[in-house]
Design goal:
The protein is of the alpha+beta class and 108 residues long. It has one domain: TATA-Binding Protein (2-Layer Sandwich). The protein is built from 4 helices and 5 strands, in the order H-H-E-H-E-E-E-E-H. It has a 5-stranded antiparallel β-sheet with strand order 1-5-4-3-2. A hairpin with a 3-residue loop joins strand 2 and strand 3. The longest helix is centred in the N-terminal third of the chain and has 12 residues. The N terminus is likely disordered.
Length: 108
């Protein structure tokens, strides 16, 4: 029963990657680190959530964490000088995730 309640709660707050990407970021940061270095740092920092699905495009890459069709977190790295990092989350308490993204952006 507990598993069913947890699944129902996740299903209520989760959405697809596309839907989450349409929301305003809860954090925007810039970094002079390479996109590969940022992806590695953020991926390791978020390892407790699992491995991300990563979509690499010509001008950005999107890292998404979730289960099946439900995406809970996304990090978009937009290429430039400096690179722009946008963090989006369905979680009410995303403070620790924001600290992790900021630490990666700032050279940690």
């Amino acid at each position: 029963m507990k598993g069913l309640i947890v699944f129902a709660a996740v299903a209520l707050v989760g959405c697809t990657t596309t839907q989450l990407q349409e929301k305003d970021p809860v954090l925007t940061a810039t970094s002079t680190k390479s996109p590969d270095a940022l992806e590695e740092c953020i991926g390791l920092a978020f390892a407790r959530t699992g491995r991300p699905s990563t979509i690499r495009g010509e001008d950005q890459r999107i890292m998404a964490w979730g289960s099946g069709a439900v995406t809970m977190l996304t990090v978009t790295i937009k290429y430039g000088e400096p690179n722009v990092i946008e963090f989006r989350s369905n979680s009410i308490n995303s403070g620790s995730w924001m600290r992790d993204v900021s630490a990666c952006a700032n050279g940690a």
